[in-house]
Amino acid sequence: MMTDLELEIMVANETIREAKEAFDQLRKDYQALREYTDNLEAILKERGIPFPSFLG
């Protein structure tokens, strides 16, 4: 039979695993967004449009 402490450790380990997965996905999403933003900035510069000006 599991003790309360063992159960809490299992729950904590699962929480850490889920947090790592979420963080990895956020990192991937950030990298994709950064690549998209860099491409957009390059396109705008090619057309003589300052990057921040398209925001309004």
How would you explain this protein's 3D organization?
There is one protein chain. The chain has 56 residues and is mostly helical. The chain has 1 helix and no strands. The protein is rod-shaped, with a radius of gyration of 22 Å. The mean pLDDT is 91.
- The number of distinct helices, counting runs of at least 4 residues, comes to 1
Mean pLDDT, to the nearest integer, reads 91
* Termini gap: 64 Å
Helix/sheet category: mainly alpha
How would you sum up the global shape?
rod-shaped
Regions with little confidence, pLDDT below 50 for 5+ residues: none
Oligomer: single chain
For the sheet with most strands, the description reads: none
Tell me the β content: under 5%
Give me the strand/helix succession. Answer: H
As a whole number of angstroms, the C-alpha radius of gyration is 22 Å
**Percent of residues in helices:** over 70%
Q: Can you summarize this structure?
A:
With 56 residues, the chain is mainly alpha-helical. The protein has one helix at 4-46.
Keywords summarizing the entry:
56 residues, mainly alpha, 1 helix
